[in-house]
Design a protein that fits this description.
five-stranded parallel beta sheet; alpha/beta
């Protein structure tokens, strides 16, 4: 062993035998997501990471090429972003923490892009992160992107930080009200998460609408608890509104990170709804108009500023272009052109509420319904006066937007066994045959469908089994009738409120109101959460949309070293090293580059054998 030691053997590194001045490409992938704001006894993780980069830069010469990639990097790598040592240090000084999540699988694509644009015999990639579990999740990235280049790639994973910070975050904010109306209560659900292993008390949550505080709540959170609370407010105007929920940071020791204490949202309430009324005669529309008139009075509308803009016609062709939704009442049949226009209107997002007349041509109706993949109508049925069908509704879908929030008893489920709803006396009713695209809204006691809905394309059709006049029933005189008319206009005219969760750092599809959708590509204008506006050129209106952080970033649980290595192994990358300490990174990198002299290990082994020989010889002497 001593002879071998004096021969000075060396374990070759990846630069052994190469020209010492060989040009290298250094790629620094820096996690600047907000979790890096955590501090330990060495300072903030972010400052530690930047100091480590400056220290590693000492291993590079002016001829080498350097690249800096961060969490907030744009999705398309641009050629020419390389820097010299001084330029990279300047970039580090100007970098700030961001709420954009650090997802390593996405950032590896930039390494691939650099390889396409640059030609180096060696690429060294340094990844400086706190290595949360969210950092190494896969996002359907091609695992073969390094198939032809993995041999000259050397990865150094530098795990920053020792501790998991104390944190309380807002995970999600959701508008629970399905139909939004001006001056009507809107419920907002807020989900909070206590990430700490101890209980927290008296945490204040504030709700702001259009930058004005409208309500608040104070809650306690048990260790590791996820809790939902409900806040209520009344919007003071129509149009597009913005809001956010804020968790106050009243104790830094319990909640060290403030960037996940806000969650933004938007809502849209139209200034008016264009309602197309279509009927063969005035009698078919009388009660519908009375219901709309009552709703107008309750909303305090004036003659000059009416919320419902009524467009009345005897045929569909004159109404569809001017209407947000249609109410068709007493129409016996549809022409071929009307059928085509109505089908196209619904598929493109239109909503239609239909009350049939007593003498409709069912086959004509069924042609339209078949093209919409909707339910089917059978011939009209005469109802005897003593039948149980006249007693009550057996089932009502209280969770449907047409009925949601309309009844004081919020514990109602889909059945109404414990709650009496005034039912109509029925003389004639159409038999509705459901299919898979049929949503049951109202059902009578003999399981006959009274009100149903089907979806087609982007639109909906709601159908009542009786007419809107008194010829088939007295339903139009019951209290449920104006409710259905009013709520259906909102539901079919402006659509059900849908909560959208758009995350910074990604390309997002933003829906600002019914049938108005925009693609928002990620750029530096949208790199932080907040409320943003967009102008619709057709309606000449400004709409708001919200961008939020990824809630998973608030979970600071670290990945295990084995998980990180498995992540790289899935990309067939084997030249990977992982550091949990930052004390002697440069010497480790040099050893990997130039190799390791083995003479020290051989001398240690020689000494071990000498000691063994001495112990053994003493045993022989005793014998």
């Amino acid at each position: 062993l001593l002879v071998f030691a004096f021969s000075n053997p060396v374990y070759k590194g990846y630069l052994s035998g190469s020209n010492p001045d060989i040009r290298k490409c250094g790629i620094f992938i820096l996690d600047n997501s907000f979790s890096m704001a955590v501090k330990d006894d060495k300072g903030s993780y972010y400052e530690q990471a930047k100091n480590s980069i400056q220290n590693i830069l000492k291993l590079y010469s002016p001829n080498d090429k350097l690249f800096l990639i961060t969490s907030s990097h744009l999705r398309n790598f641009e050629k020419g972003e390389s820097k010299d040592i001084a330029g990279l240090i300047d970039s580090l000084k100007n970098l700030e923490l961001t709420t954009i999540p650090f997802t390593l699988s996405n950032l590896l694509n930039y390494v691939k892009d650099i390889q396409k644009n640059e030609n180096f015999p060696l690429y060294e990639i340094f990844i400086l992160s706190d290595f949360q579990k969210i950092n190494i999740t896969d996002e359907n990235i091609d695992k073969n992107i390094f198939k032809d280049f993995h041999k000259n790639l050397h990865f150094y994973n530098i795990d920053i930080g020792k501790r998991i910070a104390n944190n309380i975050s807002i995970e999600k904010v959701e508008i629970k009200s399905k139909i939004l109306e001006n001056n009507k209560d809107i419920k907002v659900s807020v989900i909070l998460k206590n990430h700490n292993k101890f209980n927290t008390l008296n945490k204040q949550v504030n709700l702001f609408i259009d930058d004005k505080k409208v309500t608040e709540a104070v809650i306690d959170l048990v260790s590791l608890e996820r809790k939902e609370i409900s806040l209520t407010f009344k919007p003071g105007h129509s149009g597009s509104s913005s809001g956010y929920v804020e968790l106050l940071q009243n104790d830094f020791l319990e909640d060290e990170i403030i960037k996940d204490n806000k969650f933004y949202f938007t809502l849209y309430i139209p200034e008016k709804i264009n309602v197309g009324l279509i009927g063969d005669n005035e009698n078919n529309l009388k009660y519908i108009k009375l219901a709309i008139e009552s709703a107008e009075k309750l909303s305090n509308s004036t003659e000059t500023q009416r919320f419902y803009n009524i467009v009345q016609s005897v045929n569909i062709i004159e109404s569809v272009t001017k209407s947000d939704m249609l109410i068709i009442s007493g129409k016996n049949n549809f022409s071929e052109d009307e059928s085509k226009i109505l089908t196209e209107y619904i598929n493109k997002g239109g909503g239609v509420l239909i009350f049939p007349g007593r003498n409709i041509k069912t086959e004509n109706y069924n042609l339209i319904l078949r093209s919409l993949n909707a339910f089917r109508i059978e011939e009209i049925l005469k109802v005897k006066s003593d039948t149980s069908i006249n007693r009550k509704f057996e089932k009502i879908d209280f969770e449907h937007p047409i009925f949601s929030g309309a009844f004081k008893n919020e514990e109602l489920s889909i059945t109404s066994d414990k709650y009496f709803i005034e039912s109509p006396r029925i003389n004639f009713i159409y038999n509705i045959i459901p299919n898979n695209n049929c949503i049951l809204l109202l059902q009578l006691s003999d399981s006959r469908i009274f009100l149903t809905e089907s979806n087609s394309g982007e639109g909906k059709i709601v159908f009542c089994a009786v007419s809107s006049d008194e010829e088939m029933s007295d339903f139009s005189t019951r209290s449920l009738f104006p409710l259905i008319i009013n709520k259906s206009i909102f539901y079919l005219g402006i659509g059900e409120n849908k909560n959208s969760y758009n995350i910074v750092g990604k390309n997002n599809i933003v829906s600002v109101r019914k049938n108005i959708v925009y693609t928002i590509p990620y750029n530096f204008n949208y790199r932080e959460p907040g409320i943003f506006s967009i102008k619709d050129s057709i309606s000449n209106q400004n709409y708001f949309f919200a961008l939020n952080r990824d809630s998973l970033e608030s979970n600071f649980q670290k990945s295990e070293p084995g998980e990180v290595k498995e992540f790289f192994k899935s990309y067939n990358l084997n030249n990977v090293e992982y550091f949990t300490e930052q004390t002697d990174i440069n010497s480790t990198i040099l050893k990997s580059r130039e190799g390791t002299e083995l003479w020290k290990y051989l001398i240690v082994l020689a000494l071990v054998f000498v000691i063994i020989e001495m112990i053994y010889s003493k045993k022989l002497e005793k014998i």
